[in-house]
Specification:
With about 280 residues, this protein is α/β, with parallel strands linked by helices. It is built from 7 helices and 17 strands. It has one domain: Glycosidases (TIM Barrel, Alpha-Beta Barrel), CATH 3.20.20. α5 links the parallel β6 and β7 (about 130-135).
């Protein structure tokens, strides 16, 4: 429960646990899109909370010889995502994806943003360009003075994630109370929203407001295309939705300013407020 690793003799049983879990949720009308072998495979959390180390060769063997075949035998279409850990483990990811047995059952990577930088994910794309990537963990500290208003910080995070190959973003956690509960670990976790334990009042966080900018305009299946700027205080991502609309999201961590946006022979001026996230649609 507080460190160590799973013994190989239990791999088959663990795979069946996944099968039963997925089947039980499906029976309640909740299909599971994807699973990973273990949250954060490369840390034991210093014995401070339930965790389990998965060496690279263990993860490869579990997915290729047990979990993948078990899901296939049960007729389940749930995907397997590799790693579920930080950017700095990109080298491990490349080597794991080199294994043909693993690739038979796994063609996607789940990333966390706690260590390293989003640009590291491009190292994987250069070697394995057909592998899908997803950002699966990141959340605020509810004790931070900026918890309610750090929308620019989170917008910059999401922009970096999308510009470096990820197809989805998952916030962690969705809803916690005013003391970050429930929480079995030592970390000061906040939710996208806070639900007060007594009054049930719902308070959105800065991360929530950032998510709103992205989710209300970028559709599932949108394609990211290149965008450039010489202003250091701006971060931006450009997308094209399936319905033909173009989306440009700009975060401004600096003072109020005016910028010119150019695309396909057209141009327009935008006034960006201080500490703001702006969405343009055309």
């Amino acid at each position: 429960m507080l460190g160590g690793s799973m013994r190989k003799k239990n791999f088959a049983s663990y795979a069946q646990h996944f099968v039963k879990f997925i089947q039980a949720y499906a029976a309640e009308g909740l299909p599971i899109q994807a699973v990973t072998s273990q949250n954060e495979v490369d840390t034991d959390q210093d014995g401070r909370m339930p965790a389990c180390l998965w060496g690279q060769e263990y993860e490869i063997e579990f997915i290729s010889r047990h979990l993948g075949p078990a899901l296939e035998a049960a007729g389940l279409t749930t995907k397997i995502w590799l790693l579920d850990h930080n950017y700095n483990l990109w080298g491990r990811v490349i080597c794991s994806l080199d294994d043909p047995g693993l690739r038979k059952h796994c063609n996607a990577v789940a990333w966390h943003g706690h260590v390293g930088t989003p640009e590291m994910m491009k190292n994987v794309h250069r070697i394995h360009p057909n592998v899908a990537m997803h950002w699966t963990e990141g959340g605020p500290d509810y004790t931070s003075q900026s918890y309610l208003v750090d929308w620019v910080t989170w917008a910059q995070t999401f922009i970096g994630v999308l510009n470096n190959g990820c197809a989805s973003i998952t916030g962690w956690n969705l809803a916690l109370d005013e003391r970050g509960r429930p929480n079995i670990g030592p970390f000061l976790c906040g939710g996208l929203v806070t639900i007060h334990s007594r009054t049930k009042e719902i308070t959105p966080s800065g991360q929530y407001h950032a998510c709103a900018h992205f989710s209300r305009s970028i559709q599932r299946g949108a394609r990211v295309y290149a965008s450039t700027s010489k202003l250091k205080n701006l971060a931006h991502v450009a997308c094209r939705n399936r319905d033909g609309r173009n989306i440009l999201i700009i975060s401004n961590s600096g003072p109020k300013c005016s910028v010119t946006v150019r695309a396909a022979g057209m141009s327009t001026n935008l006034l960006l407020d201080y500490d703001s996230v702006t969405t343009a649609v055309w």
